[in-house]
Write a structure and sequence with these properties.
Two copies of one chain form a homodimer. Chain A contains eleven helices and nine strands. Chain A has 287 residues and is α/β, with parallel strands linked by helices. In chain A, helix 1 runs parallel beside helix 3 and helix 6 runs parallel beside helix 8. The radius of gyration of chain A is 18 Å and the shape is globular. Helices cover 44% and strands 13% of the residues of chain A. In chain A, strand 5, helix 5 and strand 6 form a beta-alpha-beta unit. Chain A has a nine-stranded parallel sheet. The first copy, chain A, has a single domain, classed as Alpha-Beta Barrel (TIM Barrel), CATH 3.20.20. Chains A and B meet through loops of A and loops of B.
């Protein structure tokens, strides 16, 4: 395994980790000041700061991307909604390209309207079929542009409202269906928070292999976990076997960064400098 | 599929559904009064009421069991803890036999100490190995007594603290390992709350088949879900495809009851009569 103790070569910060403390330009500055080389920004943060401005800022600061968050949310209650989702994903691909992202992360969506508490239906098989169709359509465009798509399996507790692809195996089955020759155009984003529990995690990461392991996200699972969305832990504060899982992805050929993505009311209420300093310290010691 | 609209032949009530309103004898009376024929009591409720007294009460009221909750919690931090868990499971088997249960439900346990927020370690593979050993040892005794064991895969959000068996596939792999000839001594309890999200649910239920489908639990998944443990929904109030999943288990040969098990602060703060009346109404219409 790679040595993370000596420098920050393989650390990336997902900018949602600081979304409540700072605007994107300030996050980029804070990362660059610490010698962090890569970030994964969210579309809403980029939109607020201006796409061209962010692209310039990244270049000037010598910052690269570990990914771009996010495309997806393909299922919809009607044809107009499905079309709108495809249009939006096309824009996300374009933005990812403009920013020089290595991949666009897909949070694929689930029951339409569920995130608002008003699901249009509860047919998860239909939602899954629409997800496959949506990825297929987006992939056709993303191939032209040269932007890999990374399906992120989300934790099953988010299956109804955020993503109905909830295991690495399921995500890889879709990769097999849509990119059988493993061109690297379609792969997965492995987030330890969503996948640590999976008894097939090691074997499925091995199955994914270098061509399909497009991103690796870290945080931790707290005991107790008090919220289904915003109670993620800082690496080392929970029970995820971080180094074991990093061993799995590196054994499969992953050579990219470990991206810290923490949705947490606790860490969002901590000063940004302290959060980043803790991320750096934990990256060196427990990631 | 069986017709649930006409009578209560296939309804069972897991007594945890009313645990904060009533003691077990009062729960049994309330069920019997409504013509409900089966219950699944919890060990702590039985212990409070007295095992012999509960057995007599069940007989006098003409109530049968749909299962007995619960054995399990096999992993431990040391040898003494592992032994104590086996002793306790043996007692659970005996109690289940005394009460005439068709199966003892196993919530297998996970990282020792995690439920108290102080995990002794975070090696989930070790916990899983201890679970298999614990089931094997308990099964040897349960076979003698003639008490089937039902492994209940819990939702992955409970993998760290309650059960590290989180998919039907994983549970069935253990059944294959420990009871290859499918004698009926070891099987699974399918709870829609824990399993609805699983893309392999239908195929794994078919794989389980009649011999291994020992229990079927219903409630619903709410949007939003506000707590990882005690925010289950009444059937029909959430997004679980209840009739579709019942179709899966019946197609595989399951002929037992649909057992209502709702852990919910909301329903625990509702008068017991109203909860039971709602269970009956939803059983007729949406289960």
């Amino acid at each position: 395994m790679r040595d993370f103790s000596a420098d920050l070569a393989h650390l990336a910060i997902n900018t949602a980790t600081l979304r409540k403390q700072l605007a994107l330009p300030a996050i980029l500055e804070a990362c660059a000041r610490r010698g962090i080389r890569r970030v994964c920004p969210w579309r809403d943060q980029v939109a607020s700061a201006g796409l061209a401005s962010v692209a310039r800022h990244l270049k000037d600061a010598g910052l690269g991307l570990s990914g771009y968050c996010r495309g997806g949310f393909f299922p919809a209650a009607d044809a107009a909604g499905l079309r709108a989702a495809l249009d939006d994903n096309r824009r996300a691909v374009d933005e990812a390209k403009t920013l020089g992202a290595p991949c666009l992360v897909l949070v694929v969506g689930a029951l339409p309207g569920a995130l608002q508490g008003r699901p249009a239906h509860n047919d998860i098989a239909l939602a899954r079929a629409q997800v496959v169709d949506g990825i297929a359509a987006t992939l056709a465009y993303a191939r032209q542009v040269g932007m890999p798509l990374a399906i992120e399996p989300l934790h099953p507790m988010q299956a109804a409202d955020r993503a109905c692809i909830n295991t690495t195996e399921h995500a890889l089955d879709i990769c097999d269906a849509l990119d059988a020759s493993q061109t690297g155009a379609l792969g997965v984003a492995i987030d330890v928070y969503h996948t640590w529990w999976d008894p097939k995690l090691e074997s499925q990461i091995a199955r994914a292999g270098h061509e399909r392991l497009l991103a690796y996200h870290v945080c931790d699972w707290l005991l107790p976990t008090r919220d289904l969305l915003n109670d993620r832990g800082m690496m080392g504060d929970g029970i995820v076997e971080l180094q074991k899982i990093r061993g799995f992805v590196e054994a499969a050929g992953y050579a990219g960064p470990a991206e810290v993505e923490i949705f947490s009311e606790r860490w969002w209420s901590t000063p940004a400098a302290a959060v980043l300093d803790t991320c750096v310290a934990r990256y060196h010691t427990v990631v």
